[in-house]
Amino acid sequence: MGLGAYEADVYYDAVNRQIQTIRGKLKKIREKRLLHRERRAELGFLSISLAGYTSAGKSSLFNALTEETTRVDKALFTTLSTKTRLMEISKRQFLLTDTVGFIDRLPLTLIEAFQSTLEETIYSDLILLVLDLSEPLEKIEKKNSICLETMEHIGALGIPVITVLNKIDLLSEAETKQKLEELKTKTKNPILISALYRINLERLKQEILKKLEDYIQASFSVPLTEETMPFMSWVHESADVKEAKFMSDSVQVVFEANPLFAEKVRKRVEELDGKFGTKPKNQ
C-alpha cells in the first residue's frame, strides 16, 4: 500500500470518528429537548413554532412577539439552534420557538443533522410560517412550497399554520394588496405584517388566540377493517395525530384539530362502528 492510500485511510477514519462524535452529541441534544418538551407539556403551555425560508424575518418576529433581542442577520442559518421564550397574549402565556431556516432543496443528510432542531416544529401546537412579501411573487410562491414540503418531510403537516407575510413596510399599499390577492389561495391563513415596525402584530396575536382557543383534543377507536387504513391516512393528513395504537382487532388514536374537523372525524368513526370522545386541549 502506498503512502497516499495510507494517508487517505487515516483521513477517512478521522472523518468517520468525527461524524460518530457529532451524531452522539445530536442524540444527547434530542434526548434533552424531549425532556424539555415533556416538562412543558406537564406545565400546560401551548407551543408555537416559527418556521420559514431562511432570511424571511423569523428572528425579527421572535423579537417583536417576545420583546427580546436575538441576533438578526441576513446570513444563512443565523439561527442554528432553537430558542424558546414565553410570550403573552391577552393574559395567556405561550411558548414561542425560533427555528433554523429552510433552504431550497435541503439535502436529506442536512435535514437529519438539524432533526433535533426541526423536531421542535413537529411538537408545536401552531406554526407561524414566515414569508418575505417584498420578494418577487414567483419566488414567494416557490419558497412557500419549499417550506410546506420540508414540513411534510419532518411530519408537521397536521399542525395548524398561520402564514405570516412579512416586510410589508418595503411595499406600497397597492403592491401589498395585489400580492395578497395572488397568495390567498396558495397560503394557509395569510396575515400581513411588518415585524421590524410592529405593524399588524395585534391582528396576528388575535389570530394566534383564535387558532389555539379553538383547537381541541379528541380520541377514538375503530375496528380494523378494509376501510380503516384509508380513514387513518385521511386523519393523519388533516390533523395532528399524537398517538396511534394498533391492537389485534382495533386501532386507538389521540389527535388534535379544530372542532369542525373533529366533528367530521366523529361522524366517520360512528359510521365505522367505533367510539369517539373530545375535550378542550388545555384541560
Outline of the structure:
With 283 residues, the chain is of the alpha/beta class.
Please describe the topology of this protein.
Blueprint: H1 3-43, E1 46-52, H2 58-66, E2 83-89, E3 92-98, H3 108-113, H4 115-122, E4 126-132, H5 137-153, E5 161-166, H6 173-183, E6 190-192, H7 201-214, E7 216-223, H8 228-238, E8 240-246, E9 250-257, H9 259-271, E10 275-280
Parallel strand pairs: 1-3, 1-4, 4-5, 5-6
Antiparallel strand pairs: 2-3, 7-9, 7-10, 8-9
Helix pairs in contact: 1-4
How would you describe this structure in keywords?
283 residues, alpha/beta, Rossmann fold, Alpha-Beta Plaits, 6-stranded mixed sheet, 4-stranded antiparallel sheet, 9 helices, globular
Question: Could you describe the 3D structure shown?
Answer:
This protein has 283 residues and is of the alpha/beta class. It has three domains: 42 residues; 169 residues, Rossmann fold; 66 residues, 2-Layer Sandwich (Alpha-Beta Plaits), CATH 3.30.70. 46% of the residues lie in helices and 23% in strands. The chain is built from nine helices and ten strands. Strands 2-3-1-4-5-6 form a six-stranded mixed β-sheet, sandwiched between helices. A four-stranded antiparallel β-sheet has the order 8-9-7-10. Helix 6 links the parallel strand 5 and strand 6. Helix 1 packs parallel to helix 4. The longest helix has 41 residues. The radius of gyration is 22 Å and the shape is globular. The termini are far apart. The relative contact order is 0.11. The mean pLDDT is 80.
Overall residue-averaged pLDDT value = 80
DSSP E strands, number = 10
What is the CATH-assigned architecture of the largest domain? 3-Layer(aba) Sandwich
**Poorly predicted spans:** none
CATH topology of the largest domain: Rossmann fold
User: In percent terms, what proportion of residues is strand?
Assistant: 15-25%
Strand order of the largest sheet: 2-3-1-4-5-6
The gross shape turns out to be globular
